[in-house]
Amino acid sequence: METLKFFRSNGLIPPDVVVFAKAFQIFMRLVGKDACWDISKSRHSIFSGFVNSKRNHLFYKTLDARPFLLAMVGKFPDEVNRVIVRKHSCNCKYCLNPSHYYYGTMADVRLETNQRQGDSLTPEVVEKIRTADEWLSSKEISRRLKIPYQRVRKIRVGITFDSLQKKDQPFTLSEGWETLDAVLQQLSSSHPDEVRRYELDYHMTNEKECPWHRHGTKEHKGRFGHMGECLDCLEELKKGRCTVDVTKFDYRWYWTVKRFWDQVDVRGPDECWPWLGATKKGGTESVAYCPSPVHSGATQSAMRVAFWLSRGFVGKYRIHTKKGCEKFCCNPLHLEARGLDDALEPSKIETIQLNYVNIFSHFKEASAKTGDGGGQQQPPS
User: Fold this and answer.
1) Using an 8 Å Cβ cutoff, are 139 and 129 in contact?
2) In this structure, is residue 364 part of a structural domain?
3) What is the dihedral of CA 265, 268, 270, 275, to 10 degrees?
4) pLDDT tens digit string along 217-269?
């Protein structure tokens, strides 16, 4: 594994990889994939090894942290691009988000710095100046592009931005998750105690099940992403799944699902669905029972459970109601998972089925399909 080799060659050990992975998980839950990950915004003990008081970038155990951030998502330097560049869209010089960095040249550093300071010169403009027709004078190009003449002249003769390379589209964290999950899978076998200590073991387990798992099937079991989201549910979310249907769940989840929706004022599909169940902290937070394979507690916010039981299990992603909703609204169409960019916004609720027509015959048929012979325990009537 190239990532682990990179850490070892720079004096770090595998548990340090787990620390970086946990840091990623915390910020994904707090602010999402695209925002700046400023370590000063979190007081978690995991950040004790990071230092932001030296120079103009982040350090980890006296080492520049940026190469390790990129290594976590499978990005490494090559013969040409060896300098770490921070994108001009990133406003935090101590940012921990690996998608805000890339390997480039000093010309890229100058260009990104200029853009951060409001300069209109972009790689596309530089390329346009370079490839302009020879018969066009630098003064004419300067006039057309509204760029100072001296800058145009220096770019054309190769004095400035001579090492600027044509870059691919910036990578996103979604593209780096596969590399990160592969690293964690290897660490789970070599350093299981460290992985379990930082609650990252659910990425690799083959035993834990998503609420949508049905007994006797392979789906929704043992396949969890970096934030604890069920990867099978994620595929359904990409298709826009949205259903309030107790018949979609295994018998072991029947009463959990049914009792949850019994505590929701289910109205029209376009109206808010207020939570009628328990609250805490003086009525400022909702409380709903729903065991989770990636949380230590058995209760969650009502909005989170509503999202899990209607659209899919998304683990530790934060669930928010849309602007203008009533307090503790549980309408699936009014909920969104912060940072989950791959989810397709549903246009309607496919079905609303809160009771079985014949619960015993339903589970008898389900047992026959899975080969249980009807011998499993059935829920009470």
Assistant:
1) no
2) yes
3) 0
4) 888 887 887 778 888 898 899 888 999 998 888 888 888 999 999 999 999 88
With b meaning 16 or more CB within 10 Å and e meaning fewer, what string describes 149-169? eebbbbbbeeebbeebeeeee
The answer as to whether 202 is a domain residue is no
Beta strand 59-60 with 50-51 is antiparallel
In a domain, 95, yes or no: yes
Task: Give the bridge partners for 172, in sequence order.
Answer: none
Q: Which of 81, 103, 108 is nearest to 171 (CA)?
A: 103
One-letter amino acid for residue 136 of the chain? L
Contact assessment for residue 253 and residue 319, using Cβ atoms and an 8 Å cutoff: no
d(CA 19, CA 254): 38
Apex 264 CA angle, 261 and 270, nearest 5: 105
What Rg, from alpha-carbon coordinates, does the chain have?
26
For residue 193, being part of any structural domain is answered with: no
How far is CA 241 from its chain centroid? Answer: 19
Using one digit for the tens of pLDDT, what is the confidence trace for 282-304?
Answer: 999 999 999 998 887 889 999 99
Structure tokens at 143: 């006039």
* Final residue in a domain of this structure, among 174, 193, 211: 174
23 Cα distance to chain centroid: 12
| 220-230 as b/e: b if 16+ CB within 10 A | bbbbbbbbbbb
Higher model confidence: residue 374 or residue 164?
A: 164
* Contact partners, residue 158, CB within 8 Å, separation at least 6: none
Range of the domain at 18: 2-174
Under 8 Å between Cβ of 42 and 30? yes
C-alpha closest to that of 250 among 219, 222, 224: 219
- Tokens standing for 132? 């302009």
User: Do the beta carbons of residue 148 and residue 74 sit within 8 Å?
Assistant: no
